[in-house]
Design goal:
Distance between the termini: 90 Å
Protein name: Pyruvate/2-oxoglutarate dehydrogenase complex dihydrolipoamide dehydrogenase (E3) component
Shape: globular
Helix content: 25-40%
Radius of gyration: 25 Å
Largest sheet: 7 strands, mixed
GO molecular function: flavin adenine dinucleotide binding; NAD(P)H dehydrogenase (quinone) activity; oxidoreductase activity, acting on a sulfur group of donors, NAD(P) as acceptor
Pfam family, one: Pyr_redox_2
Number of domains: 3
Keywords: Disulfide bond, FAD, Flavoprotein, NAD, NADP, Nucleotide-binding, Oxidoreductase, Pyruvate, Redox-active center
Strand content: 25-35%
CATH class of the largest domain: Alpha Beta
Family: Belongs to the class-I pyridine nucleotide-disulfide oxidoreductase family.
Bound molecules: flavin-adenine dinucleotide, nicotinamide-adenine-dinucleotide
Length: 471
Amino acid sequence: MKRIKTDICVIGAGSGGLSVAAGASQMGAQVVLLEGHRMGGDCLNYGCVPSKALLAAGKAAQAMREGRPFGVTPVDPEISYTAAKDHVRRAIETIEPVDSQERFEGLGVTVLREYGSFVSETEVEAGDTTISARRFVIATGSSPFVPPIDGLSEVPFWTNETIFDLRDAPEHLIVIGGGPIGLEMAQAHRRLGCRVTVVEAMEALGAEDPEIRAVVLQRLREEGVDIRETCAAEGVRQRPNGVVVETSAGPISGSHLLVAVGRVPNVERLNAEAAGIDVDRRGIKVDANLRTSNRRVHAIGDVVGGAQFTHVAGYHAGVIIRSMLFGLPARTRTDHIPHATYTDPELSQIGLTEAEARATHGDRLEVVRFPYAENDRAIAEGRTTGLIKVMVVKGRPVGVSIVGSQAGEMIGLWALVMANKLKMSAVAGTVLPYPTLGEVNKQAAGAYFSPRLFDSPWVKKFVGFIQRRIP
Ligand SMILES: Cc1cc2nc3c(=O)[nH]c(=O)nc-3n(C[C@H](O)[C@H](O)[C@H](O)COP(=O)(O)OP(=O)(O)OC[C@H]3O[C@@H](n4cnc5c(N)ncnc54)[C@H](O)[C@@H]3O)c2cc1C
Ligand SMILES: NC(=O)c1ccc[n+]([C@@H]2O[C@H](COP(=O)([O-])OP(=O)(O)OC[C@H]3O[C@@H](n4cnc5c(N)ncnc54)[C@H](O)[C@@H]3O)[C@@H](O)[C@H]2O)c1
């Protein structure tokens, strides 16, 4: 057995682990990074990057069907699913060098391509090497949850780890699960010419504001995605040319099956008990500083079971670098973390939804809305579907929900506002270029102040008073 002594040992080279390794090594710490599978983790290889690349291929196909309002004759595009997958592969390959072993070794990180497993409170074994470190970071991510549906283990099915390798278009894709993975994949495949049925046990995008998610579901249905809600998959069996999913609302036949019903934390290889690290069903248990029950060990990203996004894993990395390298107090916040679902229209959210804000703030809550249909750029581009809702308490936003074109980009402004606890006046006072979709944000702030300025008898009296006195 070889032995390595280091300052920090990071387990998992995905979004979270790579950020810790890059940050810590560039600030002078000795870092060992362990990765048992592919550098870049889920996001690069089976998650964000391939899903957004496939959605982009679908968007290109859809644009050819929707030219009529612009005087362009719509066509039913000739689609090569294989070539769309080539685009997915190229996107991954273009980003890959940034996450590669070579780049990290160039930064001075010792990279071992092995799974890590604790052997004591201060040691991890990876292949034929034992690493002892002053601090460990668990960043092992999550894997697709495969539910105990009767017959599932006997039929071929895909998850996010396999669907991007598929080269031939499925004729009729059945997606079990109407969460973000299910709906992004449903729309991408529908636009690439496949029949798609989504089977959702409860409500599709059920965690989102009902008014906001309804806009996404309506568009997907208009495009021909068959979304069945309150329809639980209870059994699956093979048929000659595909699969039948038995649901609470009857059988559904299709050619291929994608299972997208949530995630499980990657803890099984860690032997966490050997290091005194507590684990529950959601993942590694951590406190607000992302410390585990073993004070030398932090855990970040998907494996801690909170919000499972790449930017959250990156945020966690920043928080623990602060505490590990500088000994500074560093607690996580969640109120300033946005998320987006990249269907078309996109959906984004930060802070509280309207229902959550109502439950927390009661009558102090004001909700302002602004529709895309009244934004000049959206009108010019025929992208008028959508709206923004801002939940405001005492002049400060406590949540923002957006559905519409570029909603994932639009939430950025509110992320800045909420991270820095700015008021609505900061948004209203910002000058934005005309005509941009981003003005929807400012128009929402305008909708907050307009009644205060234009419907107030006091303001009218005051202005009249001043006007009579100035020359
Ligand atoms: C289809 C899909 C689409 C998504 N789209 C988005 C999106 O658009 N935006 C967004 O923000 N998020 C998105 N996500 C979520 C995002 O991918 C994850 O939140 C993110 O990858 C989590 O980062 P992580 O570092 O915690 O884990 P990962 O990136 O999964 O990395 C964990 C790494 O640890 C390795 N590992 C596991 N166990 C061990 C061990 N014992 N020893 C050594 N290595 C180990 C794994 O092989 C893996 O490489 C998507 C996810 C999926 C599945
Ligand atoms: N754009 C993004 O940022 C993005 C995109 C994709 C995934 N992700 C991340 O990945 C995570 C996992 O996504 P997901 O979509 O797999 O999970 P999810 O938990 O968000 O949704 C799964 C859905 O499956 C349904 N379901 C469960 N069992 C079922 C059954 N037997 N029959 C029918 N429906 C069933 C649930 O009711 C739920 O609505 C997300 O929470 C998110 O953190 C993010």
